[in-house]
């Protein structure tokens, strides 16, 4: 077979191969096999030395022509296959921007925590500090320094989880009063603090009792503090939490750590100058009073110089009143259907 014929045959075979492949890898194989150093075209060109001088340029030109033609065909096919591959990839990775997105629900603070934070912000704004104390507490701080010695009958009001005879789960946040007063340097000025936290009592859980609940203790100690300061402070707090139109009322009560002691009610309906007293519905929200001299003395504060007021309120009760929740256990069951209502 003449060289021309061989080249023509080669051209036909390779073009068929190129046209029928649909893989880039395969196409690359064809290219290497055809145009590579060991390929048929190089071989033909190597055979040139055996042909006559007149024929040589003609065959040479023809071989180059075929090589260029095959090169072009390979390039063209390569571009075509790459394009196909790209389109396939684009189709596979297509995003439908009109589909509705995935809805991520951001978390939020627990409703009790929200009430506590609201109170904290309010008291911080009035210059109070926020103090903390341990939940596993000494009998000394929880009771004795709160003017409740071992045999005091009022201990019965707070049925206690004892860990040892001297260590207990605190039944109230009042011990933080003693802990903070002990450390306070009164030459630097008044002590104004609140202390929010968990407290524990051996109560049987029902709609209004939980063996674990929250309190926010408040304490102000300075020279010349009066009951009017207490009333003014609590009125502000009640109005901030429940609304401007609410009033408070103090009723005489008893707590071992305050003298005199009061229970504080908030008006449940709006009150203005035209409201008749008998139309006001009062709800008890907290205990308070003027700090007992014994409490001051035991914490190393001179009751002849200093005095002040204290109060203890229940954020659980505030939340129940504010949102009309009729069972305290809802706050502790962690049912998101309930909790997510308070965003
Ligand atoms: N610790 C009291 C209780 O748990 C609440 C209380 C009442 C705290 C009067 C006070 C207060 O600081 O002055 O029942």
UniProtKB/TrEMBL annotation:
Family, similarity comment: Belongs to the class-II aminoacyl-tRNA synthetase family. Phe-tRNA synthetase alpha subunit type 1 subfamily.
Q: Which domain of life is it from?
A: Bacteria
Its Gene Ontology cellular component terms are:
cytoplasm
HAMAP family, A to Z: Phe_tRNA_synth_alpha1
The chemistry this enzyme catalyses reads: tRNA(Phe) + L-phenylalanine + ATP = L-phenylalanyl-tRNA(Phe) + AMP + diphosphate + H(+)
Query: One GO biological process from the UniProt record?
Result: phenylalanyl-tRNA aminoacylation
Which cofactors are reported in the record for this sequence? Mg(2+)
**Subunit comment:** Tetramer of two alpha and two beta subunits.
Q: Where in the cell is it found?
A: Cytoplasm
Protein name, as recorded:
Phenylalanine--tRNA ligase alpha subunit
Extract the NCBIfam families matched here: pheS
Lineage runs: Bacteria, Bacillati, Bacillota, Bacilli, Lactobacillales
- What organism, scientifically named, is this protein from? Periweissella fabalis
Q: Which InterPro entries match?
A: aa-tRNA-synth_II, aa-tRNA-synth_II/BPL/LPL, Phe-tRNA-synth_IIc_asu, Phe-tRNA_ligase_II_N, Phe_tRNA_ligase_alpha1_bac, Phenylalanyl-tRNA_Synthase, tRNA-bd_arm
Keyword rRNA-binding listed? The answer is: no
| Keywords from the named record | Aminoacyl-tRNA synthetase, ATP-binding, Coiled coil, Cytoplasm, Ligase, Magnesium, Metal-binding, Nucleotide-binding, Protein biosynthesis
Where is coiled-coil annotated?
67-96
Q: Which GO terms describe its molecular function?
A: ATP binding; catalytic activity, acting on a protein; magnesium ion binding; phenylalanine-tRNA ligase activity; transferase activity; tRNA binding
């Amino acid at each position: 077979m003449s060289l021309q014929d061989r080249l023509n045959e080669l051209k036909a075979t390779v073009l068929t191969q190129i046209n029928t492949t649909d893989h880039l890898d395969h196409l690359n194989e064809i290219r290497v096999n055809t145009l590579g150093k060991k390929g048929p075209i190089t071989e033909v060109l190597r055979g040139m030395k055996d042909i006559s001088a007149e024929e040589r340029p003609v065959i040479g030109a023809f071989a180059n022509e075929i090589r260029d033609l095959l090169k072009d065909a390979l390039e063209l096919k390569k571009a075509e296959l790459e394009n196909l591959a790209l389109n396939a990839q684009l189709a596979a990775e297509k995003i439908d921007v009109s589909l509705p997105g995935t809805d991520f629900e951001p978390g939020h603070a627990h409703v009790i925590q929200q009430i506590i934070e609201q109170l904290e912000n309010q008291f911080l704004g009035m210059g109070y500090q926020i103090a903390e104390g341990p939940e596993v507490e000494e009998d000394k701080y929880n009771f004795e320094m709160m003017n409740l010695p071992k045999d005091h009958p009022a201990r019965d009001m707070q049925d206690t989880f004892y860990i040892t005879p001297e260590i207990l789960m605190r039944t109230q946040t009042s011990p933080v009063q003693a802990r903070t007063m002990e450390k306070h340097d009164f030459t630097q000025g008044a002590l104004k603090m609140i202390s929010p936290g968990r407290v524990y009592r051996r109560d049987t859980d029902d709609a209004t009792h939980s063996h674990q609940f929250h309190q926010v203790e408040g304490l102000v100690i300075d020279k010349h503090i009066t009951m009017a300061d207490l009333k003014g402070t609590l009125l502000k707090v009640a109005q901030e939490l429940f609304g401007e139109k609410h009033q408070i009322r103090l009723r005489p009560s008893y707590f071992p750590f305050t003298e005199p002691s009061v229970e504080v009610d908030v008006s449940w309906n709006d009150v203005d100058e035209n409201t008749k007293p008998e139309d006001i519905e009062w709800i008890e929200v907290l205990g308070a009073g003027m700090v007992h001299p014994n409490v001051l003395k035991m914490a190393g504060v001179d009751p002849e110089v200093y005095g002040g007021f204290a109060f203890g309120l229940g954020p659980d009760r505030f939340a129940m009143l504010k949102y009309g929740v009729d069972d305290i256990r809802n706050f502790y069951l962690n049912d998101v259907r309930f909790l997510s209502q308070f965003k």
